[in-house]
Design goal:
Blueprint (H helix, E strand, L loop, with lengths): L8 H22 L10 H7 L8 H14 L6 E2 L1 H16 L14 H10 L5 E8 L7 H9 L2 H8 L5 E7 L2 E8 L1
Parallel strand pairs: 1-3
Antiparallel strand pairs: 2-4, 3-4
Helix pairs in contact: 2-6, 3-6, 4-5
Length: about 180
Amino acid sequence: MAKTLILTPTKQLLLGLIVAVLFVAAYMVGNNTTAQQKPSVAQSVRITSVPKTPSGADMLHLVNAERSKHGAEPLVEDPELDASAQYKASDMLNNNYFGHVSPQTNTQNGLDYMVKTVGNRCTYVSENLTENPANINTSAEAVGTWIISTPHHQAMIDTKYTLTGFGIAGRYIVEDFCQQ
């Protein structure tokens, strides 16, 4: 005869907490993390009570930290790529769209502008875009969305890229990449 186990609400809560602790412990072991490690910059930004607005410097730090995990050299921020990324971010904000192709021109105007801006300095270019929710518009949120998206992450850690630039306009964030 099978016995039925009846748990009081207190015991149910305690069991739920135990399962949660075991889940976190398993995650930490699987990711080679210890409780004593200091949080990364991305984690620090996420836990602050007042989110820090996105900045190119913060995103460069986060992107280069991710590249380092994959054996890629750090990117160098370039003023011309900052200008082309800013052009794309501002265009999306001013024309109320999100995407690589502008609905006004039906072209990849960000990449076109980048090529025009940097001329022959780059043999290959690409761009990452994100549209952050207004309530969590931080550098960590932007970089985090690129990390969890395979094509964006591949661009971020691609060893052929040496230069980058960032553009921020409201909730739109753009990162441009250049292979010299």
